[in-house]
Amino acid sequence: MSDDAADVQRVLSGDVDAYAKLVERYYDRCARFAIRMLGNRDDAEDALQATFLRAYRALGRYQERDRFSAWLYRILVNQCRSIAARRTHRERVFVREEALLLNAPDRTPAWTGEDEEFVQRVLNELDPLLREAFLLKYVEELSYEEMSALTGAGVSALKMRVKRACDRLRERWEYIRDD
Amino acid sequence: MMLSSVRRSPAPVLRAAMVAVALAALAPLHASLRAQETDPLARLDPNSRFAIELVLDSAHALGIPTRPLTSKTLLGISRHVDNRRIVAVVRGLFTSLKEARIVLGPSLSEPEWTAAAEVLQAGVSPGVLAKFRQNHKGKQQLAMPLVVLADLITRGVPVDTASSAIVQLWNRGAADGDFYGLWKGVEQDILSGQNPGAALEQRVRESIGHIPPGSKLSSPSAREPDNPSQ
Amino acid sequence: MDPLVQRIVQEARRPVAPDPAAKARLMAAIHAEARPRQSPRRRRWRWLLEPRPLALSPLGGFAVAAGLVGIGIATELVRTYRDGHTTGEPRVLVAAAPLLPVHDTVTKFVLVAPHATRVSLVGDFNDWNASATPMQRTPTGGTWSVTVHLAPGRHVYAFEVAGSNGTQWVADPSAPLAPEDGFGAPNSVVLVGGSAS
Question: Which of B142, C6, C16, C155 is least surrounded by Cβ atoms within 10 Å, i.e. has the fewest?
């Protein structure tokens, strides 16, 4: 039995602290996905809170044949989708306020390779489905089969989304570089 | 002043409000629940509504009353406040409610609880609020002194002056009527042009003359008159 | 992979530092979930039906003895706000919380506003809805009043006064003020009692 499955069993037997172990194991990684996906910490925190609470409540339905992380990620991806969908159109281009303060409005930030704000902004400009596929493939490093099980989309559709995401990111980078 | 606990079914007027609050609290758990005409949160934009529902969800999970949070939301809606501001204010109130419980302990009644949260929001520090935990033996309600404290600060009495005055009276066993009388007097003084801080200090001096130190008018147990309730 | 995209991936893979308080809040919420469970339905509604300890109204001891309805009338020709500005509108208010011998929590709100065309009571007991509790003008014309059943406890409220200048949100000049509500509106507090002591 994996560590995850063992901890799930403990939680179901009433050991709440065993859930804390699962949280410890996955929170930071989920946080990274949520922040990259949603573009700001407030929404990410909402998504994380909702994800781990719902996972806790639904623990009885987790089947050991699934990998716990995949099961958890399915909840996380859906939470992020709900939050993104609820945003008004006006807010779809999420610009972090700190980034605005740091960068003069008439100057595009120079790429330093270490500029998290820049990467986040560029990711934010992707269509949410493309961004999600890109993050799952390259940041979470899932296989296409795992992504398919998680998102419900077919493998070829996912490959297409990842390719289009890369094309868009490259276009955006070249556009900025040519300024 | 004696207090009694009453178990009664909610009056019809209140029941509608309670249903609305319950619906708001349950909404995140029933994803298929559609916005109903009676659901006032439906007037929020979806993003803000979701954020508020998460706060209510968290509050309920932590055993924190959701009624003040819903009420604050509805106040903002009826004042046509920008939805994002409503979310920020409600989150702030939630934080204050959590803090109030940490400071004053779990046996707070709801009126005391919301009064304490508002006192924190008025600028009183948690350390000062904690002083009310002493001598809070459950018999005497904190609601009145905290309501009076928040009022005095809102009327311009400096936070420190107001806090130390009310704490002083609390420690001396002042009862609801004493706090109310103090408030009424200071209010009149401020309206007739006196400096709020000075007016309060004067009234407190007068009050203390009437209240023996360490007396607990509402407590059935006898206390030594010369035993300070510090 | 394209080198430009590779750099984005590298950056995106960097761990983020989540707010440690957020994790703590999450675990607190989990522990709260884990408390001994009643049936979910009962658990959700329990907090609505819990008896609330009562607080006596601002009337305190005086009203008990005298069976007073009002706390006295404060006549103020000028109301001074915290920022120093004043209004000249004559306004008198009595916030009354009669202590009836039965478990009743009837509260009467009165506002003198002779130039108003409409006055509503708004508060946490009616979802701040100005159409929920309109006040009635007395025959003499200058006074508006309404009687409401309030649950015992602490309530926040105000008056919405419509006149020739438009609509104003007004606190009760004779009641304690609630702290600034975050929305710029002044509100008042009433503590409602139940049985006589």
Answer: C6
